[in-house]
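User: tokens in, sequence out, please.
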């Protein structure tokens, strides 16, 4: 009985650990993240909204949650732990993004070929997967397509040298975070809507899903950070 009760806190404890890491290190001046914690949190919060809506619409269709690993507190059919996941993971990855920025040289390399080719690949894959009834898989590539377009017309982080390094770290983070959730398993997937291709216990779609969430969070963060910097300069000039 005690072990069963401990299990119910597993997802919540996961979120606390993921969230507390950037807070602990970020509050130390040597990491240069103190003044960025608030915009990072705001960016994570707002980027979570479309994914929470997506999650709520397909829960108990594309996937469901193992009641043994959640407290039972739900909003819009989603466990509170799942909602926190959409904030804690992007927040942690924004911290990681900042550490990469501070410790590597940046360079902007604009390429229309990159934009059109990546967009075309995501569009074709999304259409093909929708055609074969793999709806979750199709939605993931469609989300990635939307993110490429949003980024192209806003932050353009995909054209920065830092972004070439970042996906490797994101992949590692997804393998750790989602690996923890799927190995228990805390999340149960319907094989009808996915390709059933997996890396360890993680559906391939979850990697694209996680990357699109983090991509959006970074794009929002960079836009917000730029806006804050412009405002500071304006105040300084005045």
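Assistant: Sequence out:
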């Amino acid at each position: 009985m005690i072990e069963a009760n401990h299990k119910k806190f597993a997802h919540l404890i996961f979120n606390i650990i993921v969230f507390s890491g950037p807070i602990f290190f970020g509050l130390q001046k040597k990491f240069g993240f103190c003044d960025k914690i608030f915009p990072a949190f705001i960016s994570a919060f707002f980027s979570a909204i479309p994914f929470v809506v997506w999650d709520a619409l397909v829960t108990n269709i594309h996937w469901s949650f193992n009641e043994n690993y959640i407290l039972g507190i739900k909003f819009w059919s989603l466990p509170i732990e799942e909602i926190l996941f959409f904030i804690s993971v992007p927040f942690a990855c924004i911290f990681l993004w900042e550490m990469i920025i501070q410790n590597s040289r940046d360079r902007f390399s604009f390429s229309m070929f990159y934009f059109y080719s990546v967009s075309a690949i995501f569009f074709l894959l999304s259409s093909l997967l929708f055609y074969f009834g793999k709806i979750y898989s199709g939605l993931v590539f469609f989300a990635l397509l939307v993110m490429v377009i949003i980024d192209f017309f806003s932050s353009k982080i995909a054209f920065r040298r830092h972004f070439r390094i970042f996906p490797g770290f994101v992949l590692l983070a997804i393998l750790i975070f989602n690996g923890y959730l799927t190995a228990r398993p805390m999340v149960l997937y319907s094989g009808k809507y996915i390709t059933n291709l997996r890396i360890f216990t993680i559906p391939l779609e979850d990697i694209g899903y996680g990357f699109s969430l983090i991509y959006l969070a970074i794009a929002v963060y960079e836009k917000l950070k730029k806006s804050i910097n412009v405002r500071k300069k304006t105040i300084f000039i005045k």
